[in-house]
Amino acid sequence: MTLLRAALIASATTGCVAVIDKSTATSVAPVVMASNDIGLGCASGEATAAVLSSFGKPAKGKTPHQAQVLTLLSAGMCVEPLAWDAELQRGVALKNGEGARISDLLEVERRHHAVAAKRYYAAWLELSAAWSPEPGEGCPRLNQKQNEELIYLLGLSSGVLSVLHDQAAGGEVGVPLDVPRAVARAATCLDDDTWWGVPRALQAAVWATIPGAAPEGIDPKVVLAESAAKGDAARVRLSRAFQVQSLATLGDEDALRVAISAHATSIESPADAHYGLLDRYAHLLIRHESDKLWVAEAGHRTPGDHYGRFPAPPPDTSEGDALLDDLLGGDLDPAVPAPE
Amino acid sequence: MRLSTALAAVFAVGAAAVPQQSEAADKVLCVYDPSGSAGPVFQQAKKYQAAAAQWDVTFDLKPFTDESVAAADFRNGKCDAALITGVRMQQFNKATFSLEAIGLIPNYDVLERSITTLASPKAAKLMVNGTYEVGGIFPAGAVYLYLQDRALSDAKDLAGKKICTMSFDKAANSMVGVIGAQAVASDVSNFASKFNNGSCDVAYAPATAYTPLELYKGLGETGGLVRYPLAQMTLQLVIRDDFPEGFGQQSRSWSASQFNALMPSVKKAEAEVKSQYWVEVTGDKKTGYDAMLAEARGNLVTQKVYDPTVVKLVEALAKR
User: Rounded to a whole number, what is the distance in Å from the CA of A13 to chain B's nearest CA?
Assistant: First the structure.
């Protein structure tokens, strides 16, 4: 944060928002991205987002937009796990027949989603202000020496996340529902191989859930699987997270289990040291989907030593199957355990 | 370090000896939402799930992005209940399907009174059809005509025009015949692209489709939405006959009570349509639409597609 402080002071004296943007993208972002401690990254975002918006000429909309994409996205990451936690608690209450608690937990979850949506949408708006043309209306000139492609990628991710969280919040924030299509178009501005398959994964995630968004003849699930494999190979597994989240959204539980198991196997290889934060964030997203499956089936979250495995379905009570089950020892789950 | 605390809690709870329960959720509710579990219908289903838990029925929610699959899975017994659009309800309950009859419900006030009336215990008989029972009806927005050329706003102008028509929607196909227009077979996944690329001159959809499907691109500089509800889109919950005694009525009463909570999102979507696009229909034009839709509706009652009791009931409510 020393670097950020220096950048802020430098900018305050020169009044030049470009200094903050450049310093954030080239000095701060690499440090934040290299950490795998989401808590530290998000706390930094929460602490600096409001301050950053006061630099430059806020009244004229001239603030360090690129820097704010990063800080607001990070700040959104602080709230997201709170919504997840409430969702899982709701699942446990449902499983345990605690009917009276469920409405309350649903409202707790909704409120956290609203805050997350607000922050991610703010990051999206900063992205829209940072470059011209606006996302989805053409490709801006991104200076890769100044790490601008990374900021652009994070801003696009914020756009998708803002819609997902706002929908879960009942539309409280009012994120426009055409943002995902804009993200899908803007993702073509980034090289898919350079960015671990994330641009195509973002596109496919949008195609999978918006009627008619997919180009003719393209199966979004196939694209998501290819992107996930690309992310696994690069050890920045954000594409796998988008795949898992999309499969959960589509209700394809079989494919979801396979994708989570693949992630459990993949994380035996450590993350790319430069992007530990994104890989860890992906892990948390995927583990949440695993937790939802565990809670629905077993009434508790994924045990640490069972990540990549799933609780066996309820035993079939028919006599023949029960006997077979008994003879086979009752363990019908073929998945191989993977370390947390 | 809120996140660290939260993560610690996740691990702590995960590792704790929470007693493992083997029983699955009591019932499976299959939910159609074009955006899957990320969409607004699924969010509404979560509220329903929370309410039902207080009536001692636990639902496991399953998202479906293909409505025909959701309906088929319900019919085949893979789901104990389904939340689908009214147009798909024809196979399960003709009475509530008829609530979406062409031109039957002119405004949201009549829609609310119709839903409330059908949710009353007196209407319970209409809600049961063999092994199926309707467990609730929710508003999803009036269906409007989207025109590439706003000059076509008179009903008689539509003759010969290409209209994106949902293949499974018999009523709409019948109406296209009455108009003398040409149906372009479409479905939920492709009607917007057909309208936007000019393959259709006309499409029909609620305003909730305007922004997410970018229908403003097809409207362009010359298009418009005719402010005349062709029909009222609804979401309907259908259950089997193996629920606890009285569940269906409890469910219908709760569902009707949600009307006012759901309408703001419908009205917000209508407000998002640029004012320049709305084409007001008054005087002779309105009379023309009234006559055309009444003729199409009458044909469908005669053909026994619509339930005459519900159509008469709603027509009477509309006059009050």
Answer: 32
Give per-residue pLDDT as tens, B125-175: 999 999 999 999 999 999 999 999 999 988 889 999 999 999 888 888 888
Nearest to A137 by CA among A189, A175, A195, A177: A189
How many CB atoms are located within 10 Å of the residue B275 CB?
6
Q: Is B75 contained in some domain?
A: yes
Q: Return the residue in B37, B57, B267 with the most chain A beta carbons within 10 A, the one to mutate for interface testing.
A: B37
pLDDT for A122-170, tens place per residue?
999 999 999 999 999 999 999 988 899 999 999 999 999 999 999 999 9
- pTM for the whole thing? 0.88
Query: Could you tell me if B37 and A251 are in contact, meaning their C-beta atoms sit under 8 angstroms apart?
Result: yes
What is the distance between the alpha carbons of residues A175 and B143, in angstroms, rounded to a whole number?
23
Residue of A nearest to B51 (CA): A103
The CATH number of the domain holding residue B90 is: 3.40.190.170
- Whether B188 is in a domain gets the answer yes
Report which residue type is found at B72: A
Helix (H, G, I), strand (E, B) or coil at A86: helix
| B-proximal residues of A, 189-248, CB under 8 Å | 208-212, 248
Mutate to test the interface with B, among A44, A82, A210, A316 (most CBs of B within 10 A): A210
Distance from CA of B257 to the nearest CA of A (A): 16
Is the ipTM of this structure higher than 0.90?
A: no
Using the 8-state DSSP alphabet, how is residue B134 labeled? E
Q: How many domains does chain B have?
A: 1
Residue in the block written with tokens 């702590």: B12
Any bridge partners for residue B204, and if so which? B145
What residues have CB less than 8 Å from A40, skipping those under 6 apart?
none
Are the CB atoms for B49 and B81 separated by under 8 Å?
no
**A193 burial level (CB within 10 Å; 0-12, 13-18, 19+):** exposed
| B303 found inside a domain | no
B228 lies in a domain?
yes
Of A43, A170, A284, the CB nearest to B43: A170
Expressed as residue numbers, the domain containing B258 is 26-298+308-319
